[in-house]
Amino acid sequence: MIQNNGAEGTEQTAAAIETFLTGQRRGSSRVTLRPITGHDQDEFLELARASVDLHHPWMSLPTKPQEFQTYLRPFDHPQSAKGLLVCVRDTGAIAGNINININSIIRGRFQSGSLAYAAFAPTAGQGYMSEGLGLVLRYAFEQLRLHRLEAQIQPGNHTSLKLVRRQGFRKEGYSPDLLFIDGAWRDHERWAITNTMIGHVPGDPHPTLPLH
């Protein structure tokens, strides 16, 4: 059974994304963003199964209905993670997914969150994820009013490293045994970007940012 179609968090994310996209110049963009919902289950699972070789050993996505429902749960609450799909504008096909991990956001003086993302094999290598990540960065900095986003990437994942370099991320460090992936603790490089690095500083900072 497909669930989570009317979750409050997903509805609020959809409204925020629509507001954000309305203010963007769409002429040259081949992709759009929308929140993932239970209605995406069949297409998402088919794409995940087709992309197992592409994702291994760097990550794994749900390939069964029960796994997909568990995957959706963090996106139910308005203050939880934002699960976004990168879709080809002309066809609506899902090209990848990008999650902004709101549950890892530290507000106050930090105003930072983390990113996780994956392309899908049928459209990989065509630049859709680069365009989608660019939109997500602007959404995070302009709409969510974050100052900083981080991505943790295994050193051998050259495609992912190329993606963040293209968007202007800078390498900030190296963490041995950072995350448990594919049955073992894996080393990761830490990459980050701030709103000042790409000129997307909100005119009205988040209310949790101290005055001094």
Helix content: 25-40%
Overall geometry: globular
* CATH topology call: Aminopeptidase
The number of distinct helices, counting runs of at least 4 residues, comes to 7
* SSE series: HEHHHEEEHEHEEH
CATH superfamily: Gcn5-related N-acetyltransferase (GNAT)
Mean pLDDT: 86
Task: Walk me through what this model shows.
The protein is α+β, with helices and mostly antiparallel strands and 212 residues long. The chain has one domain: Gcn5-related N-acetyltransferase (GNAT) (Aminopeptidase, 3-Layer(aba) Sandwich), CATH 3.40.630.30. Strands 1-2-3-4-5-7-6 form a seven-stranded mixed beta sheet, with helices on both faces. A hairpin with a 2-residue loop joins strand 6 and strand 7. It is globular, with a radius of gyration of 17 Å.
Quickly list its features.
single chain; Aminopeptidase; 29% strand; 7 strands; disordered N terminus; 7 helices
Layout: helices, strands, pairs:
Blueprint: H1 8-22, E1 31-35, H2 41-50, H3 52-55, H4 65-72, E2 82-88, E3 94-106, E4 112-119, H5 128-143, E5 148-153, H6 158-166, E6 170-181, E7 184-194, H7 195-198
Parallel strand pairs: 4-5
Antiparallel strand pairs: 1-2, 2-3, 3-4, 5-7, 6-7
